[in-house]
Structures are given as structure tokens and as C-alpha cells.
Amino acid sequence: MRLNIALLGAGFIGKVHAENLAQNPSVGFAGIYDLDEASARAVAEQHGVPLLGSLEGALNDDSIDAVFITTPPDTHPTLILRAAQAGKAVFCEKPVGTNLDEVDALLQSLADIDRPVQIGFNRRFDSHHRALAEKLKGGAIGRLEQVTITSRDPHPPPVAYMRNTPGGIFYDSMIHDFDMARWLLDEEPIEVYAVASSLIGEELNPDRDPDTAMATLRTASGKMCAIQMSRRAVYGYDQRLEVFGEKGMLQSGNVQVHNVRHYGAKIIGEEVLLNFFTDRYRQSYVQELESFLLAVLHDHPVEVTIWDGRQSLALSLAALRSATEGVPVQLNYPHAPRQTHRDRLQ
Amino acid sequence: MRLNIALLGAGFIGKVHAENLAQNPSVGFAGIYDLDEASARAVAEQHGVPLLGSLEGALNDDSIDAVFITTPPDTHPTLILRAAQAGKAVFCEKPVGTNLDEVDALLQSLADIDRPVQIGFNRRFDSHHRALAEKLKGGAIGRLEQVTITSRDPHPPPVAYMRNTPGGIFYDSMIHDFDMARWLLDEEPIEVYAVASSLIGEELNPDRDPDTAMATLRTASGKMCAIQMSRRAVYGYDQRLEVFGEKGMLQSGNVQVHNVRHYGAKIIGEEVLLNFFTDRYRQSYVQELESFLLAVLHDHPVEVTIWDGRQSLALSLAALRSATEGVPVQLNYPHAPRQTHRDRLQ
Amino acid sequence: MRLNIALLGAGFIGKVHAENLAQNPSVGFAGIYDLDEASARAVAEQHGVPLLGSLEGALNDDSIDAVFITTPPDTHPTLILRAAQAGKAVFCEKPVGTNLDEVDALLQSLADIDRPVQIGFNRRFDSHHRALAEKLKGGAIGRLEQVTITSRDPHPPPVAYMRNTPGGIFYDSMIHDFDMARWLLDEEPIEVYAVASSLIGEELNPDRDPDTAMATLRTASGKMCAIQMSRRAVYGYDQRLEVFGEKGMLQSGNVQVHNVRHYGAKIIGEEVLLNFFTDRYRQSYVQELESFLLAVLHDHPVEVTIWDGRQSLALSLAALRSATEGVPVQLNYPHAPRQTHRDRLQ
Amino acid sequence: MRLNIALLGAGFIGKVHAENLAQNPSVGFAGIYDLDEASARAVAEQHGVPLLGSLEGALNDDSIDAVFITTPPDTHPTLILRAAQAGKAVFCEKPVGTNLDEVDALLQSLADIDRPVQIGFNRRFDSHHRALAEKLKGGAIGRLEQVTITSRDPHPPPVAYMRNTPGGIFYDSMIHDFDMARWLLDEEPIEVYAVASSLIGEELNPDRDPDTAMATLRTASGKMCAIQMSRRAVYGYDQRLEVFGEKGMLQSGNVQVHNVRHYGAKIIGEEVLLNFFTDRYRQSYVQELESFLLAVLHDHPVEVTIWDGRQSLALSLAALRSATEGVPVQLNYPHAPRQTHRDRLQ
Questions:
Q1: Does C135 contact A260 at a Cβ distance shorter than 8 Å?
Q2: Nearest by CB to B195, which of A195, A224, A247?
Q3: ipTM
Q4: From CA B129, how far away is CA B304, in angstroms rounded?
Q5: Which residue in the set B251, B260, B261 is minimally distant from D261, CB to CB?
Q6: pLDDT tens track for B323-339
Q7: Interface-testing mutation among B144, B238, B260, with chain D (most D C-beta atoms within 10 A)
Q8: C337 falls in which pLDDT band (50, 70, 90)?
Q9: What pTM did the predictor assign?
Q10: pLDDT digits (tens, 9 = 90+) for D99-131
Q11: Nearest-CA distance from D252 to chain A in Å?
Q12: Based on the number of CB atoms within 10 Å of its own CB, is B328 exposed (0-12), middle (13-18) or buried (19 or more)?
């Protein structure tokens, strides 16, 4: 059984997915589309797949079973809806959108369309984090009480990127950690409190956009979660999870390039951490695709739903408001999800 | 050079200090006083030192150079003042008091009395944490940006104790972590936000006093600190510090009973952590006494001042209010300290 | 540039190589041959490649550039020679043979045939061990003095296999460690001393073949190497290297399935080790193939030469004799190699 | 109950014991004797204990219950015998002597004298190694099969010392590891094979005495032990034990000054190891004294007997001969011990 998938979007993350689509034996890589035709052509040539002339054409092509959406975030809700209406299964990179009303409208529009839609929170598919989650959900530490997430990038994004996404540390970056938090808490946070500072320095962050942040989440049953985030860690990509409960604690630690230890005259040293997400989380994108194939070809539940995408976005925007106004922000849920937290781990 | 020290208070922590006073070759252990004469007599006999008949007598005895105050917290301000007025050098267990106004009054009263007064935040003298602080202050990670403190007790205090100190998780326990935070931040926090839950269960915490908490601190320059606290960790006394800055990160990890690793058929295992503060921090009390001797006998600056005690108390009370009211609480400083953060590390 | 490679041998290790040949974009997988036609056919069908009818045919087929030899060890010298004489580049699984005279004859026969021949000591291509070797050869610990190799299999081979290869712990298993030793020592051992015992128990080793062994190597300049080997480690595949020298020490540690740590009430635990070489060293086979492609297509020096294969075999046989006779055994080299220790790391 | 102990020998190791004798509340430190009166006087004054005028006087003094012998090794057998004949309990530093015949004669002479005699192999009392031994003897890894001991000093002894003890790496240094090996194997080695080189360099070892060595031990039941030794490790005092058996493996790792980890831009680093035995094994000397007090005051079996001392010496001398002659050396036991391996752990 093979799934024919077209890729919409030939940007940085689009290329990451293109690589995996090209190598997966259960995927027919049906073509690539991007408004920027030169970018799309480069991907098409690299992988020997068709250059798709138009979005309309791709959506109307019955030989295409599914689309991967890796276009800019504000286009996501419209594209998801059009693709689902055209009968395609949909994978859409995070975030599901940039505006909560639009996403809520999308949820309503999709209510009657029975197509699988998966949102791209790849970290759930990292083997280390996933082993932690499986042990947690298997009862290894009993009732969960506290979650601690450390998430520091090796270096900030380009200045132009930061300029276009003010406060992006919350809705571009920490949104991943909010998804991790919800995944582990297994209960919706009802309040978020966040602080943010601009500490990295003029050279890397001339506009003094927030680059260092912390957030605290609370659930109705009293579980709590702390997130520590920075856009610059000189020792590499710092990605750690810790869950604490009545019967113990689990930690998913950092990953190093190799495990060689050097005992010298002044220091016992190890390699610094893997540099960034394309290294550290390379395999997670491969597994994410496998999960999508299971959902579409084998009728498994979608592991990361639009509701998951909606909630992470809601938390991001609430955190940004909290950090701006200096108050905790409550979350409320006008549109109850039909199904939350569906994943194979439960 | 020897310092004659009388101990006021023969409770649990008084006995810890008695042990160290008895063994330190620079200390003349001049006697023990407690309202509960039987307790005092037991300590006196164990260490072969005089049982002091009255507080008055002890303070008026010119052969006594200094006092160690380990009486109940609400008596601390009065006793510190009386001892200092009697010309004694003073060591007082944490907290410096329970009421901020009383402590501020004490600070004013002491303004004209030039006697060393040290508050008992022993964790500053732990060799691991201290090595971290020395590296931090030596510039190992450049400008500090984030502090993360994990602080979990192996088990909650007795029910009766918790009943008498509602919300004590903040002003009895987390007060240590606030002191750690100020020590590491090297700048006064201007805001605290805290959440607390009662999760441990009826058996150990029948009154459902908060037993699980998190706090976030912010300084004027934008540094931030996260504290994770629980009154029950089945794997032992969990005490970790992490400081993150422009040039890297330092971690002071947990301490295990021994370093033996067991590779079995199902698991690679190590011993759980040292059980509680009298094990984990045993040496820190010895070093704390050494620091007091340096201050009194050799004129070093006092390492942990009344101002330090005042500020940790202020943060504790603010955190309790924040957790209760659900808002961040600002700190303000009516009585500017004459000298803050005096310590040998600077 | 693509290399057309035929695979000779469809046994266990042949299938491992088949997988990698099929997936490497620079390889044309030209077909598979095995005396056991059914086995060959299964591999051919799995990867959609031709079933080769005869060895002769394969060697005479000009469209085939190279062969991978994964037939039984005693056939290796003959097949290597025939393939090289037919003008093929050759990769041959370890060991290069089972009889030293045959291998020496092969070396002489190949003296005038200028075809690349690589022997399959895959561990040299493991990323962890290789990082250690690169640091070592880059001077990280100055002059090397001691090497320690720990090498324990999770479980012994099948009884029938052990019955057919008495003393195989040395020439089947420890031969890998002798290759590691020579690679790291960068100097030929001149003496080997070995001890061996049968300790595992009747159930897994009914013939009481040696299953537990240690060996010590010595070089002319005084470097020394210790090897610890067992055919059964309940905690998984134990594969460690340690090199010690004038300026420090390097260790290449074990590799775990994931890095999750569990803090429980009785133990702090981690996952046991990866189970065996097809897991632990999976990537090393991929890199080994890359190295062969570099040698054949890009004229790099062969990383693991016939001389390397000859010397590991010589050490294995000497160790077996040492363990049997209870004396150290000297190594001498009648046929000086034209080129030793050629590898990119030097 | 208090034991009056006189110390015979005011050299380096004598001072280490003097410190512990002075601080132990169950010891009456009865005085110090040394041929070099100035050295003895310095120790006497430091601890406020009597300077003993003559050996004869000390041995005839009925108020002295026991002696600690820390004189040069060749005087040990004579002094042990005279002290035991005078009715004293005896603690004697390692080695028990330098000549096997003298030690065997001593064993025979002591056969009829029922006084406790303990030999100073302090490493058995290190808390980490002891925890490993307790787990081993408690069955944690089932039947023992392999022991690996790594033992590297931070720097060689002074040139003059090495000149006076040629081959001392075996009988001065590795004798500790032979004792560890026997303690863990719980069975007498029947053969030792050793290699030694002079690699450290002219500056620290101008006479080119062996400074780097390995040894392999074998027992009758087939257990085996590997020892790796160097007189110079730039990263500190490297002291590790590993025991491997049918049900797993135990490791007693190195001990660091503190547990702070530094994540920098180039390396993740930890402190180098504790510098030498007076740091690393400080507590083991205190516990060794406690064990002696248990034996003498409370009739526990002596933990490290003369037989233990005899056997470690025998192994040392056999290893030296093996390294010199290039052959394995068998051990045989003309004088069967009355009691071997007596220790509380069994």
C-alpha cells in the first residue's frame, strides 16, 4: 500500500519533509508546489518528482491522496480546509495558524469532513521523549504532579525573521514546548503565566525582541509545568524533559554527537550537544511521517490533531499576553473538541 | 583563638549545631539553654557542657562570646536583638523571623549595634553548590540569565508540624530556595509568581496543605529564576541548581550515597539519593560554623546577613500571597540595606 | 559515479550487507549468488536484483565492478584471489581466512594484482569508536601507553555453531578486538598472552567450549593492551574502548536504546544496552560500505587491508595457542606487508 | 571501652594514622615512637601525646593495649612478632614484609599466639568499593567471572624512592590491587602473568624503572582478573573496580571533588579526579581503624589478616618475576592458612 503525497511549500522545513517523502518506500512523492517556482523546481529536480503548476491542479488531481502543507503559517487554515474539502488527507506543519478565531472557524468547518488532518509537532516522535512518555503513561511514576521542560536553541533565528515575528519566542518556538506540556500533562492547562526578557545582546537581536523566557502552566487538578527557554545556548541545542510524580521521576536528557569522554589534565570533557533541530530531531520527522501513514493507510487515530494545534497556539498567544501585561492568563475553550489527546500511547 | 559559644534551643536543629560546636577545635561550647529543661539537659550531658539556667544568665555571662539561636522562629527577632545588645556575636537559624514588620524593626534597632549577626542558610556552604557559585561569580558562564532550582524533600514533615504552619511550604521550605536564588542572581528579585497544589494525598497530608509548588522570580535587569518544589520525592532528597548565561551553563547535581552502578538484565541502576538534609547537607553545617568563626574571630564579612534573612522571608510571604491570590506579587524595599550580598565569593 | 557490486553469500551477514547495498545511491546492486540457491533467491527477490546463476558467471561479467564476499571463512582466500584476478574490487567479510599459510600465500599472489581489497572489520567505522580514534591520532592524549577493550556479547552463538568452531571465542569473536587493538596501538603487537575459561553453564554451552577470556598484548615499544571478553552479558552488548597516554585518557562508552533515566523508590535506573551487533553497529556497516566506495571510486587508500586481516587472524590463533598451552606466544612476520595501517585517520 | 594504642613510626603514613588515632573517641593515643626522634617529637607535640623513649619500653608498658606499626616494610615481620609476643594487638601497614620466607616464618611463630593482627589494606574500607563488594557477596551478579581493576596514580613517587625500590610498581603499588583482586575473587589466584614498561619519561623516571604495567590473574575455578596500572595519570587518581558475573556487572567508579558540570561552547566538562590516596581514600583509613577496634574490643574477626598480607606479597613478587622473565608464574601455598578471607562481608 502506497500513499501518493504532494508537497505544498519548498521552504526550509519543506525541504526536510521532501527528503523523507523521497526515501519512504510507502510514499509516492507526487510532486512539489510553491508560489516561488524556482524553489519548487529545485526540490523537484533534486528528488526527480513533478513540479506542480498550480495549487488548484494539485488539489483536483485524483491520483494525489494527501498533501503536506509547509507554506507560511498564516496560509495554513485556508489550505487545510481546501485540501480536506478536495478529499485529501492533510499533514500541516506547526503552527496550525496564527489567529485563534480562524482556527476555531476551521475546526467548525472540518466538523463534517471526515479526512485525517495531522499537525506537525515532530518532538512527540523523538525516540527519547517518546520512551519517557510511554513510561509515564504506563504508570512508571504513578500520578503526574510536575513537568519541567528545558528548551534552548543554539542561536537565534536571522534578524529579519525575528523582525517579522515580534514575540515569536512564544508562538514560533515555545509553541513546541506547550505541545510537549499538553502531551505529558494529559490534561488541559487552565492558566499560563510567562516572563520574557531581551538579554542576548544587540548583535544577534538588534530589535531587542524577547529572547529569554519562562512560563508556568497550571491544570484544573493541580498539576503544574515549568518551561525554560532561550534563543541562544553556546553549548548546543538543549532539549530536556522531566516529569515528576507520586512514585518517582523520569528524565529525557540531551543527546550528544558521540559518547567519547576525554580525561585531561584540567578537565574531564565531553562533546557539546547536537547543534539544532535538523540534527537532534532528524529521526523524529521520519517517525512523524510514519505516524501519518499509519493514520491514513491503516486507520490509526491521528496522533497530533488540529485541536492539539489549536491549543498550543492558544497557549502561545496567552503566554505572549501574560509576558506583556504581567498577569497570569486564563484559558477557556469555547469550542469543545470532539476528541482530544488521541494518541497511540494512551 | 577560641570562641565561647552558648547554644539557645535544644530542638532538632539545635542538636545538629550542638554536634558541630562540640567537635570544632576553635569553639568553646559554653553551655546549652532551652525552656524545656529536659531537652537542654540531654544535650548538656551528651556533650559534657554546662546546662544554662536562664537566658538572662547566659546573656549576662561575659565569658560567653557568642550565641547560637535555634529556638522557634517567632522568637528570633527578640532574641537576636537582646543578644546583640548584650554584646554577643549572633548566629540565628533561618528564618530570621515570621513577620516582616518585626524584622524591619530589628534591622533598625541593630543599625547602631556593631555585632556580627549571621542567619543560618546552610546550603550556601555545601561544597557542590559553592563550587557552582564560585565558577559563576568567576565568570565561567558570563552574564547570568536564568536560574533553575529543583528542591524536593523525600517526605513531608509530621502532620502536626504542617498543621501548625499552614502554607509552610513557602516560608519554611522554599525560603531556602529563595536564598539560593538571591545568592546566585546577585540582584534582588522584584516580582514573584507562585502556584501551589495539594497532591500528595490524605495519608501524609490530611489537611491538604499545599505540598507541591512552583515559583518564578524576576529581577529588574531581566534575569529570571524558576523553582520547583515538592514535599515528597520517593527517590530521595532532590537538590539541584542550574545557572544559564551568555557563555554556558553550570549544574550542581544530586549526591548519591555511593557511586556503584549495577548492570542487570532489566535495568542499569544506581543508588537512590541521600535521604534528607542532615545527610545531604551535613558538611554544610560544619562549614557554616567555620564561616561564622571567620566573621567573628577574623573579621571577615558575615556571609549571610539579616538582610538576606529579611529578603528570603519577604519572598516567601510574597510567594504565599501569590499562590493564594493567583497574581504575581511585587517586592519593594522600604528599608534599604546598608550592605547586601556580602560574601567572600564576590 | 556508481559502482556495480555483486554479493557472494546469502547468509546472515550477507543479508546485512544486501540491505546496505540496496539502499546506497552510489551502488548498483548487480545480483546475488549463493551455493544455496533458495537463500540467494530470497535475497534477490527482497531487493529486486538478479539471481546470479554461477560464481564463474559473476566473475566473468564485465558489467560487475566489485564483489562482496560473505561466504564461509575458509573459502575467503580462494574467492578473494579469483575475484581480484578477474579484475574486481573486493570486499571480504572477516576473517580473511582460517589458515595463516593460505593467507600468506594469498598476500603473495596479490602482490602483482593492483585491485583494492578491503576486509570487513566494521567496528572501525562506528562513529563513537572512530571519534575516539580520531582524537587519539590527533594527539589528544599524547603518546599512547595502554589500551583496554571490553567486549561482551549478550548471549553465546547457537550450540551447533560453537560445536563447529571450537575455540572460536578467539578467532571468531575476539578477532574484532585484536583489530581494534592494532588500529589503536598503531604498532604491531609482538606478543600475546591469553586465558580462557568455560563458565557460562551447560545449558548455553554444553560442550564447555571457552566462553570467557582475557588477553594481553605487548608491542616492541612497550605499549600494552588488555582485552576482556565474554560470550554472555545479561545487560546487553558491552562494547567499550579506553586509551590511556601521557596526556590523559579517552573512553568510548556503551550505547543505550534511549537516554531516559527513571528515579524510583529503590533505584535510579537506565535502559540496558543495545542488544547485539546488528543494533549497536548497524551504522558501522553503512559507513564501511562508504569507505569501500571511496577506495574504489575515488582512489582513497583501503582502510582495512588484507594485511590487517592477516594480523588479526595471526593474533587470534596465537591467543588460542596461548590459552591452550599457558604461555605467552610471540608473533613474527615472515611476509612484511607492503603497506600497513593505511587509513584516513593517519 | 577505650583502646590504648601506641604508634610506632612517624613517617608519612604514620602521620595519617596519628590524625585518626587522635580523633577517635574509642582510642587512647598512648604515644609515638620513631628511631628518628625529631619526627616522633613533632607528631607527639602536634597531638599532645607522649613521646615514647624506646621500642622496648613501649612493648613492656602494660597500659598500652595495641600498637600501630608504620615503620619501613623490612622491619614489619620482626616488629609484629615482638608486639604480639608482648601481648599487644597489632595493626601493621602494608606490606606485611618484603621477603616471603620471613613472612612464612612469622605465620608459624604466630600460630600459638592468640593476638589480633591486622594488615593495612585500606582500600577494602572505602565506602564505594565496599558497597560494590557487599552487593557482589550478596549475590547481585550471581557467580563472579571477571574482575577488572584500574589503578593509576596521579604522579610517580620521588626519584630517590623509586631508586630504592626497583620494580616497586608491583610490590609497593600493585600490591593494593592484588589485595582488591583476592578480596573480590574470594578464591586464591593460582597464576599471575604481568607485563611492565618504562614509558613515563626520563624527567620523572630517570632510572627507567617500570612505571606502566598490566597483570592477569587466574583461579582454579576459572575466574580471571585484569589489572591496569600506571604511575602517572594527568587527570588524577584513577581508581576503579569492575566485577562481571552470570547475572550482571557492578562498577565502582571514580570520585570527583564536586559534582558541578560546566556546559561551555567547546566542551561539556567536569572536574578532574581527586588527587591522591590521602584525598580519595581519606575516609578509608578512618574506617580501617574502626574495623581494628571492632576486632580488638568487640571480638570481631580481623578483616585483613597476615595471610592476606602474605598472599598479596606473594602475588607482587610473582608478578615482578613474570614481568622480568616473560612467563606466567604459578602460585603455591606451602603453609596453609588457618583462616582465610575472614571478613564481615561473608
A1: yes
A2: A224
A3: 0.93
A4: 15
A5: B251
A6: 999 999 999 865 444 43
A7: B260
A8: very low
A9: 0.93
A10: 999 999 999 999 999 899 999 999 999 999 999
A11: 17
A12: buried
